[in-house]
UniProtKB/TrEMBL annotation:
It comes from Actinomadura livida. Participates actively in the response to hyperosmotic and heat shock by preventing the aggregation of stress-denatured proteins, in association with DnaK and GrpE. It is the nucleotide exchange factor for DnaK and may function as a thermosensor. Unfolded proteins bind initially to DnaJ; upon interaction with the DnaJ-bound protein, DnaK hydrolyzes its bound ATP, resulting in the formation of a stable complex. GrpE releases ADP from DnaK; ATP binding to DnaK triggers the release of the substrate protein, thus completing the reaction cycle. Its main location: cytoplasm. It comes from the Bacteria. GO terms for molecular function: adenyl-nucleotide exchange factor activity; protein homodimerization activity; protein-folding chaperone binding; unfolded protein binding. Residues 199-210 have a biased composition (Gly residues). GO terms for biological process: protein folding. The keyword Cytoplasm applies. Residues 54-88 form a coiled coil. This is Protein GrpE.
């Protein structure tokens, strides 16, 4: 029995495939070949729509990032304000407590100046000064320093040829501060530069010469 061209082993050489829909031998309609390539789908706007969606998502992402950056900046500002307020409240409370101790510290200074700081009182005084120093309390006011009305309270004024600017010549009561905050201004005596008496006498001498 002779095999049909589509059956049996493949023959060597070129293969010719008959793609006619009607079989010329049988007159039957052939089924479409499986290997026939499927027709390409017509081009549509899917790719363009996808690009637009990506662009829209990128814009939304940029907006969200900007919102997060603004929120972070606001939070950082809030945190700094809270920290400043916390420090201010602490310094205010500490200042009130230390202000109550200033008269005691004044007594310690006077006792030391009169050589009365001895025995157990000396030990207690030194401990109190050490504790207040650790808390940030600083005593200031020295003879010879320039007069500063923001930290000094002038109780006495005089003229002196020994100064070239308004200066502290005596400290009547030391001042105290915590950092930049003044708890009590230093009460001082100040001296202003004296007029140049020599220049005035020189002018009189010149007048006599005429």
């Amino acid at each position: 029995m002779t095999s049909s061209p589509d059956e049996g082993e493949e023959k060597e050489g070129p293969v010719i495939r008959d793609k006619r829909r009607i079989d010329p031998e049988t007159g039957q309609v052939r089924e479409q070949a499986a290997e026939s390539p499927a027709p390409e789908a017509p081009a549509d706007d899917g790719a363009k729509a996808t690009d637009q969606e990506v662009t829209a998502l990128q814009e939304q992402l940029a907006e969200r990032v900007a919102d997060l950056q603004r929120l972070k900046a606001e939070y950082d500002n809030y945190r700094r304000r809270v920290e400043r307020d916390r420090v201010a409240v602490r310094e205010q409370a500490l200042g009130q407590v230390l202000s109550e101790l200033l008269p005691v510290l004044d007594d310690i200074v006077r006792a030391r100046e009169h050589d009365e700081l001895q025995g157990g009182f000396k030990s207690v005084a030194e401990s109190l000064e050490a504790i207040t120093g650790k808390l940030g309390l600083e005593r200031y006011g020295e003879k010879g320093e320039p007069f500063d009305p923001t930290v000094h309270e002038a109780l006495m004024h005089s003229l002196s040829p020994d100064v070239t600017e308004t200066s502290v010549v005596d400290v009547l009561q030391p001042g105290y501060r915590i950092g930049e905050r003044i708890l009590r201004a230093a009460r001082v005596a100040v001296a202003d530069p004296a007029p140049d008496a020599g220049g005035e006498s020189g002018g009189d001498t010149g007048g006599d010469g005429e």
